[in-house]
TrEMBL record:
Protein name: Condensin-2 complex subunit G2
InterPro entries: ARM-like, ARM-type_fold, Condensin2_G2
Gene3D superfamilies, A to Z: Leucine-rich Repeat Variant (1.25.10.10)
Region (Disordered): 778-802
Ranges of biased composition (kind: Basic and acidic residues): 778-787
Species: Clavelina lepadiformis
PANTHER family: CONDENSIN-2 COMPLEX SUBUNIT G2
Length: 1236
């Protein structure tokens, strides 16, 4: 049976026959074929094509019968679909095979309907209309279960609308609702946007169908339409105005503009939704799209509707923009409104748009520019510059147009002279942009007046940095217009001093002006700012400004259009004029050079230096009296040590860039052989040959520190084999340097050895000098045996009488220990973290470092013995060496521990042992400080106290003995002080480094502060150490809260917390007592050493006081307030101390400590609401509370008058007086009853 007969037969026999018909076709729903339509190739569904061929063979009568039968089948299937979706009680049922079969059937019917539409039947069968209406009515239900079926129904309905068939207005409502729901419900991914774009195009095809609905009250023009569906459509349309899919696509914005013109009520609803979205905290970035939509709506609207768009939308946005806040979180609101208006104003080239903008701004902007509120004036100024020029309509009188233009120019001048700096800044930017765009049409007189104000007044506005910055930035904008160059050529030299402005921002922007001037052909930057001024600023400029100045000068000292020989000549002159500026220039300009340019520059400088130094040496040997002109020039260059040192430093600077770039070029072109690679290799070879020659001859000529430093840096960059004479002398030179030699000189030699990868020699030298000094208890034989190994040959010839012949005699010279020089060399290594990381990364040096550490430990033990009063047993050793060894032992052990435990280190048994060894040594040092130093400090202090008490009742002889003992004790106290000056900063570094010795340090601090001796002398160090310990404590508590279990050696939180609080309490008491004895000295001590560390402690504790440190912070704050109250009470009882309106008028202790604990508004509120009331809730005796009443009133009064949170203090004072009668009496006695 042919497909035509099969289709008609299946339609007559019902649903099952239709299902069998579609099954026999064996065509998948998604299968497509490509056909050519005109010049385009499009995909058409294969099932639709097959069905179209069948329907084309059917006549009109058969069409009527076919669609009537299909209509009946669809009604039955809809009932079956309803039964599958829910039961009689309305409960949802699970999907089954029947449900899937129904969905598949309707999908086939949708393809059949689409095929019928594309057959272009002359008369649409009534049954076909009914089937399409059934599909349209069910699309929202089908869409919840099959998106493909809903998509097919949408295609059928849209096709029906586009073909303008009967009752087309009845087949679009649900389609619009479904498509809008689908787009609004899609995500924000790229795939979702692609799908939404397709649906937007379908919506755009039927957008005219929206005109048939009345969106004012929901009553549709067509009585068959459901009011609820129309209202739902209205809500979806309003919601679509804030969806990115509509705002990003051009068709989406056109659709939204069309929606705005449907009804006045709908337009107002849309505008309210847009305003709500703009003012919401969401980070929407589609403000310009809103302005574009408003412009499209205004452009598409008819004359009668344009007024409504202008009044309800555009002018309302103008008003809201002018009155929008632009500070804090509301700053984006003005930016959003401004972006919306700019999307409209950008079309001001169209006269109708320009006239519309002028008309809408007229009743708003001129009044706002005169407003008292500076925010309104600044917003209005921004919008005026964006909209310039405001123009009257063409039918207005010429005089009116001129007056409006002059009014704008006069406003510009007034804005430049506004009292608010922000408005002046806006005016500068806006005027420069206006002049750049409209220079040709603005009268020359107006330009002259505005430019004169800019460059003679505002460029030197001392009240605002931003105004001066704006002038410089505006100048860069003006330079973009060539017509402005003649006037700027005369005016810009006036702002040349801005390059030396006190503000970095102004200097940087002025440098940008000079860079912009370099791009012009009519203005020379050295006419604006002389070269000598630029060099003077370069000498003192920081990094950001220096890079700008280097860009300005690069073409002068590194001209790319001239040979490299000229670069060298200019380099010599540069260093002769300003060596500091020259050094900074080449340091920043090296990155601008290519590898070949850098290599050629290095080679030419080295040749230049070599030739001139060689000539100078030759002339010195010949001792010529007469000099030619050329020789005079040579002598001048070589005698100028600054110039030669500058050239050598330039080689060092450029060498770093050259080596990196050559290495990167080699890596990129590895395996490739081309001309550039050969040239690079040849240039590198020439440089490496010439540099050693130059270095060798310069060592003969120069011996000043700067030239030697540059030469040694260059030498360290080269292989030692290329300079055998110098490299063989470095280590002997270090061995022979006297003890008083310059640290800069031997530091250069040491760094040279390290870069040559010869660290073992310097380490052995240090060890060999330290070891003999620490082994004095060995016998003379061992010493002689060691000294015999270190002998040198002396060519002393003697005659022997027996053999009558000449022989060689050896004179034994002992190699004496030089511990002082060894410690200086070791300090050079330990103070350079990069060197120590490099050395300790190599396990081969660990043994030597451990040996050195053992030697230093002997010095530490000797120091402790000296403090105990024993005689020094080490040779060539003084106290300064012992202190230095003590310090170096701490530093060395820290380096060893850090190197063994760092993250990038491979963990092995050896590294674990090294870390354990270093940690144990550090703990022993801290314990030594605690036991030996603190114990000796107590004994010395006790002796001095007893001596002072009995000094009046002693004989002459006993007085002499006592005087000697006193001198010894003073010497011991001095030694203890020096040890503490070394030990406490070392402990700070230990805690900062994260080395687990915090508990040992707590134990030391407890012992030290309990003595009360010398606590004030180390208040700054102790404060910093407490800050680091509190950070460690917080981190440890947090880590324990995060972990489910503790480490093997658990941390006792309560014990360490109590220890910290006790130390803090002891320090507070010591400082309080010192403040009473010496108020001025206490103030200076607190300001310079204590305040910053205590404030850091309080801030970090307050930051975590809600979860981790609540008890600790409350305890610290309570100690603060209690100490302050006690000090106020002491002064109040000692004198007639009255209330203070300023915190600084409190006693010195309280005036210093109160701003620490109440430094911010939240901290002040915490103290007033929690800490102070808690003092009166504690179980203190009545006498103690009575004593605290008066100081509390004085303290709270100071906080009420001068605190960070005066409301909290006032409330606290009122509550305390209300709850405690004694407080009210105290307040009344202090004449503070008005505060109750």
């Amino acid at each position: 049976m042919r497909p035509r007969e099969s289709l008609l037969h299946a339609a007559e026999n019902g649903c099952e026959s239709m299902k069998q018909f579609f099954t026999l076709l064996k065509i998948d729903f998604d299968e497509s074929i490509v056909v050519t339509q005109g010049k385009k190739k499009v995909k058409i569904n294969k099932l639709t094509t097959c069905l179209s061929e069948c329907l084309q063979e059917i006549n009109l009568q058969e069409h009527e019968q076919l669609w009537e039968n299909v209509q009946n089948i669809c009604v039955d299937c809809l009932q079956e679909f309803a039964n599958c979706v829910s039961d009689e009680d309305g409960n949802k049922l699970q999907k089954n095979e029947t449900f899937s079969a129904v969905i598949a059937f309707f999908e086939n019917i949708s393809f059949l309907a689409l095929a019928a539409l594309r057959c272009e039947i002359s008369t649409v069968p009534v049954g076909l209309l009914s089937v399409v209406l059934i599909l349209h009515g069910s699309i929202l239900d089908f869409g919840n279960h099959s998106s493909r079926l809903a998509k097919n129904i949408c295609t059928v309905c849209i096709e029906w609308w586009e073909r303008n068939l009967i009752n087309k207005e009845e087949v679009v409502l649900n389609v619009l609702i479904y498509l809008l729901n689908d787009v609004l419900g899609a995500g924000l991914s790229a795939k979702a946007f692609s799908t939404s774009s397709t649906k937007l195009n379908e919506i755009f095809k039927i957008q005219k169908a929206l005109t048939q609905f009345d969106f004012s009250d929901g009553i549709a023009i067509n009585a068959n339409q459901d009011i609820e569906y129309v209202q739902e459509l209205k809500q979806l349309l309003v919601a679509s105005f804030v969806h990115p899919a509509f705002l990003k696509a051009m068709n989406g914005r056109k659709f939204l503009a069309h929606v705005m013109l449907l009804h006045e009520d709908l337009m107002k609803a849309v505008h309210r939704n847009i305003v709500c979205n703009v003012t919401s905290p969401s980070k929407s970035k589609h403000f310009e799209a809103y302005g574009n939509i408003y412009y499209l709506a205004w452009n598409l609207a008819e004359e009668e509707f344009k007024d409504k768009v202008e009044d309800f939308c555009i002018q309302d946005v103008m008003f809201k923009a002018i009155h929008a806040h632009h500070e804090g979180e509301s700053a984006t609101i003005f930016v959003a409104y401004r972006s919306m208006l700019n999307a409209i104003v950008c079309h001001k080239g169209v006269l109708q748009v320009s006239h519309m903008v002028t008309r809408l701004y007229a009743p708003i902007i001129w009044r706002s520019l005169k407003a008292v509120n500076a925010m309104v004036r600044s917003n209005a100024a921004n919008l005026l510059f964006d909209a310039f020029p405001l123009r009257e309509p063409s039918d207005a009188l010429g005089q009116d147009r001129d007056e409006l233009l002059q009014r704008q120019f006069s406003t510009f001048e007034e804005l430049l002279m506004d009292t608010h700096p922000q408005i002046r800044t806006i005016a500068v930017f806006g005027i420069c942009k206006v002049l750049n765009l409209y220079w040709d049409v603005i009268p020359a007189q107006v330009i002259a007046v505005l430019a004169r104000n800019l460059y003679t007044n505002l460029a030197f506005d001392c009240s605002s940095i931003h105004v001066r910055v704006a002038v410089c930035k505006g100048t860069v904008i003006l330079l973009g217009n060539p017509c402005s160059h003649p006037l700027l050529q005369r005016l810009l030299p006036v702002i040349g001093p801005c390059l030396h402005d006190t503000s970095e921002k102004v200097r940087v922007e002025m440098a940008n002006v000079l860079i912009a001037i370099k791009q012009t052909t009519t203005i020379l930057f050295w006419d604006v700012c002389p070269i000598k001024n630029i060099l003077a600023q370069l000498e003192v400029e920081n990094k950001t400004g220096t890079s700008k100045l280097v860009s300005i000068l690069s073409s002068s000292y590194l001209p790319s259009n001239q040979p490299v020989q000229n670069w060298v000549e200019r380099c010599v002159k540069f260093y002769a004029e300003n060596p500091t500026a020259a050094r900074k220039f080449y340091l920043h300009a090296q990155n601008q050079l290519t590898a070949m340019e850098a290599g050629e520059f290095i080679f030419m400088i080295s040749m230049f230096v070599f030739n001139h130094v060689a000539k100078s040496l030759q002339e010195n040997v010949e001792e010529t009296d007469e000099e030619s002109t050329g020789n005079a020039e040579t002598a001048t260059i070589t005698d100028n040590l600054e110039a030669i040192a500058g050239l050598l430093e330039t080689i060092c600077i450029v060498w770093m860039a050259f080596s990196k770039k050559v290495k990167s070029v080699s890596q990129r072109q590895s395996g490739k052989q081309d001309k550039s690679t050969d040239n690079s290799r040849e240039l590198t070879k020439r440089v490496l040959i010439n540099l050693p020659r130059m270095i060798h001859i310069c060592f003969k000529k120069f011996n000043d520190e700067r030239n030697l430093n540059a030469l040694m840096q260059l030498s360290s960059c080269l292989e030692p084999g290329s300079m055998p004479i110098f490299s063989n002398k470095v280590l002997p030179k270090l061995e022979s340097l006297p003890d008083g030699s310059s640290s800069a000189y031997y530091s250069m030699l040491i760094r040279c050895l390290i870069k040559w990868r010869w660290p073992q020699q310097i380490l052995d030298l240090i060890y060999n000098w330290l070891l003999p000094a620490t082994q004095q208890d060995k016998g003379n034989k061992e010493n002689e045996a060691k000294s015999n190994k270190n002998t040198r040959r002396v060519s002393t010839r003697v005659e022997k009488k027996k053999e009558k012949s000449k022989s060689v005699k050896f004179t034994v010279v002992e190699k004496e220990p030089r511990p002082h020089q060894a410690l200086r060399y070791l300090a050079t290594l330990l103070d350079d973290d990069e060197i120590m990381l490099t050395l300790l990364a190599n396990n081969g040096y660990n043994k030597t470092f451990n040996n050195i550490s053992a030697c230093l430990q002997n010095y530490v033990l000797e120091l402790m013995s000296c403090i105990e009063g024993k005689k020094c047993t080490l040779q060539n050793c003084d106290n300064s060496m012992l202190y230095q060894a003590f310090d170096l032992q701490f530093k060395l052990l820290i380096h060893i521990y850090y190197a063994a435990t760092r993250d990038d280190h491979n963990s092995t048994c050896e590294t674990a042992f090294e870390a354990s060894y270093a940690l144990q040594k550090l703990k022993s040092l801290i314990e030594m400080l605690q036991v030996d130093l603190i114990g000796q400090l107590k004994l010395s202090a006790q002796f001095m106290e007893n001596h002072n008490a009995s000094s009046l009742s002693v004989t002459l002889n006993s007085s002499i003995v006592a005087s000697q003992n006193r001198s010894d004790i003073l010497s011991q106290l001095t030694s203890i002080k020096e040890c503490l000056n070394v030990g406490i900063p070392a402990m700070i570094n230990l805690v900062k480094s994260g080395i687990p010795v915090a508990e040992n340090i707590l134990s030391f601090l407890t012992a030290f502060t309990e003595t009360g001796i010398k606590t004030v002398d180390y208040a700054g160090h102790i404060g910093e150490l407490l800050h680091q310990l509190f950070e460690w404590f917080i981190l440890y508590v947090w880590s324990n809260n995060e972990k489910a279990q503790h480490e093997s050696k658990s941390f006792n939180k309560n014990e360490n917390e109590d220890t910290l609080l006790q130390i803090f309490d002891d320090v507070m008491i010591a400082l309080m007592m010192y403040s009473r004895k010496n108020p001025d000295g206490f103030h200076e001590l607190f300001r310079s050493q204590v305040r910053s560390h205590l404030r850091a402690c309080v801030q970090i504790l307050f930051q975590f006081c809600e979860n981790l440190t609540k008890q600790v912070y409350d305890a610290i704050a309570t100690k603060f307030i209690s100490a302050i109250l006690a000090d106020i009470g002491h002064h109040a009882s000692a004198s007639e101390f009255r209330v203070c309106d300023k915190i600084n008028d409190l006693p010195q202790f309280g005036a210093c400590f109160l701003p620490v604990i109440c430094g911010t508004s939240p901290q002040c509120a915490k103290v007033c609401r929690t800490i102070i009331p808690s003092l009166f809730e504690q179980d203190a005796d009545a006498e103690t509370k009575q004593i605290a009443h008066k100081p509390t009133i004085i303290l709270l009064h100071a906080l009420v008058k001068d605190g960070k949170n005066q409301n909290a203090a006032r409330k606290c004072l009122a509550e305390i007086q209300e709850n405690h009668e004694e407080m009210a009496k105290a307040a009344e006695s202090l004449s503070l009853a008005m505060l109750a």
